[in-house]
């Protein structure tokens, strides 16, 4: 492999992706030396759109195995590096400036990129979507497929390393009727969990789908299984923070388990803003308003110094609007009306929420 002007193959697997495919391909057409598209059975005009951007379009019979489809796509690639991207994702324009240095680094086997799943949230570290095109690098997993296992083996054999990078990917999500997608994913997850019952990621993915389909009891059960596996295995990797973040969302009305999860999360991810915020909200539920105010002030300081863990996404307004609003609510509950009005006014500098305006006026009147 040459390290002079290394080439890049963008690889995709698609199916009925006409709503988002064009935007994705537009984002990569000038940075990839070739685009490989593997279609697993589209019934819309996905193939027609794909062929407007590349002639490297292949058909692959779906066999209930995402890794098999991904590996087939990679097998068609001729570039020195692979960029894996889905049709409902797209690269931000700055990627073009980053790539030469990334691809030219002889010490790196793979990079983790940043992804944003909600524009009201920050980017978070994603899985390895940029890696060398080598036979010993491949995907595993019927679903939730990743190249991580083969990358780890490669590192042991070669001494190369992985790094995070500044490639930013926006994830818009699947557009259209999600029912067939959920049905397919549930089927594959059950098969995958039968094979790997100790895989916390699979249980959490199952929880996410149950949550999206409104089956909250099943979602909580699957997520709790994932949390318990991580705790038992002591596998507190950065990626697993997302499992605890989902647990916090799912257990809002189960104060005991929620508080336990928050404490575990803060122990292993001590500078994560989302868990700090969850802790403050939990303290409010317990009417420990002064302690909650301390946490909110710590969040404000985190935002000023940018000294926080960016492993998982957090709301963009967590360091200002949400923190100031939290302090204001606590002071209102403590009947510190002047302080409450002061902080509601600070929150209103970042948002026009009617709720804050009403509480600001109330606090100001009560302070007289």
Tally of DSSP helical segments: 15
Q: Look at the structure and give the mean pLDDT.
A: 93
Summarize the biggest pleated sheet.
Answer: 8 strands, mixed
For the record, the count of structural domains works out to 3
Hey, roughly how much beta strand do the residues contain?
A: 5-15%
Notes on the protein architecture:
It is a single chain. This protein has helices at 21-28, 46-53, 66-75, 95-103, 148-158, 179-195, 200-212, 216-233, 241-250, 255-268, 273-285, 289-305, 321-333, 337-348, 354-367, and strands at residues 8-14, 34-39, 57-59, 81-84, 89-91, 108-116, 124-132, 161-171. 51% of the residues lie in helices and 14% in strands. The mean pLDDT is 93. It has an 8-stranded mixed beta sheet, with helices on both faces. The protein starts with 7 loop residues before the first strand and ends with a helix. By secondary structure, the protein is α/β, with parallel strands linked by helices. α10 (255-268) packs antiparallel against α11, α11 (273-285) runs antiparallel to α12 (289-305) and α14 (337-348) packs antiparallel against α15 (354-367). The protein is built from 15 helices and 8 strands. The chain folds into 3 domains: 8-171, Spore Coat Polysaccharide Biosynthesis Protein SpsA, Chain A (Alpha-Beta Complex); 177-251, Serine Threonine Protein Phosphatase 5, Tetratricopeptide repeat (Alpha Horseshoe), CATH 1.25.40; 270-368, Alpha Horseshoe (Serine Threonine Protein Phosphatase 5, Tetratricopeptide repeat), CATH 1.25.40.10. The chain is elongated and about 75 Å long.
């Amino acid at each position: 492999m040459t390290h002079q002007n290394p080439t890049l193959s963008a690889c995709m697997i698609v199916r009925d992706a006409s709503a988002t495919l064009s935007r994705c391909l537009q984002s990569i057409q000038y940075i990839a030396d070739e685009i490989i598209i593997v279609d697993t059975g589209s019934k819309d005009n996905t193939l027609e759109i794909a062929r407007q951007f590349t002639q490297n379009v292949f058909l692959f019979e779906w066999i209930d195995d995402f890794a098999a489809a991904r590996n087939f796509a990679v097998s068609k690639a001729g570039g020195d590096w692979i960029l894996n991207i889905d049709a409902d994702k797209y690269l931000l324009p700055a990627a073009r400036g980053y790539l030469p240095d990334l691809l030219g680094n002889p010490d790196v086997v793979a990079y983790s990129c940043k992804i944003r799943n909600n524009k009201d949230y920050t980017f978070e570290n994603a899985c390895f979507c940029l890696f060398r095109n080598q036979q010993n690098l491949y995907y595993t997993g019927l679903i939730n497929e990743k190249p991580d296992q083969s990358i780890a083996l490669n590192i042991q054999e070669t001494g190369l390393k992985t790094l995070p990078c500044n490639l930013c990917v926006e994830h818009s999500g699947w557009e259209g009727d999600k029912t067939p997608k959920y049905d397919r994913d549930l089927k594959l997850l059950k098969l995958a969990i039968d094979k790997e019952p100790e895989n916390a990621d699979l249980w959490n993915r199952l929880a996410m789908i149950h949550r999206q389909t409104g089956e909250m009891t099943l979602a909580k059960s699957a997520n709790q299984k994932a949390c318990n596996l991580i705790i038992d295995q002591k596998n507190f990797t950065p990626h697993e923070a997302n499992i605890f973040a989902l647990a916090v969302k799912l257990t809002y009305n189960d104060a005991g388990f929620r508080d336990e999860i928050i404490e575990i999360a803060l122990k292993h991810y001590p500078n994560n803003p989302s868990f700090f915020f969850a802790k403050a909200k939990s303290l409010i539920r317990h009417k420990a308003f002064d302690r909650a105010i301390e946490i909110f002030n710590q969040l404000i300081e985190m935002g000023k110094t940018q000294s926080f863990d960016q492993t998982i996404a957090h709301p963009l307004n967590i360091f200002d609007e949400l923190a100031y609003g939290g302090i204001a609510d606590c002071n209102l509950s403590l009947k510190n009306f002047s302080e409450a009005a002061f902080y509601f006014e600070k929150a209103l500098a970042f948002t026009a929420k009617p709720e804050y305006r009403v509480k600001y006026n109330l606090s100001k009147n009560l302070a007289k």
